[in-house]
Design the sequence.
């Protein structure tokens, strides 16, 4: 039988990860720049703050993670829950 070669996937190579992160950072920067160019129809005064939606999204994600960590203490079952 022929020897099986190990398959190399896209995300296995560190240089591909580096390229993806660079693309991600460029897209994020372009979206923040677009925030200054694109006219928005705002409903509240605080929406006029520069990069408001980026900051709002980041704070929202941080709050979700912190709430999930606290919920884990309440909802998590013991390691041997199914063995009992």
Sequence:
């Amino acid at each position: 039988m022929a020897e099986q070669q190990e398959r190399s996937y896209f995300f296995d190579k560190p240089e591909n990860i580096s390229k993806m992160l660079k693309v991600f950072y460029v897209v994020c920067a372009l979206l923040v720049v677009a925030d200054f160019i694109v006219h928005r129809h705002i409903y509240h005064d605080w929406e006029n703050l520069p990069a408001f939606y980026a900051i709002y999204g980041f704070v929202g994600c941080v709050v979700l993670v912190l709430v999930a960590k606290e919920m884990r203490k309440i909802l998590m079952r013991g390691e041997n829950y199914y063995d009992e």
Remarks:
- The chain is about 55% helix and 0% strand.
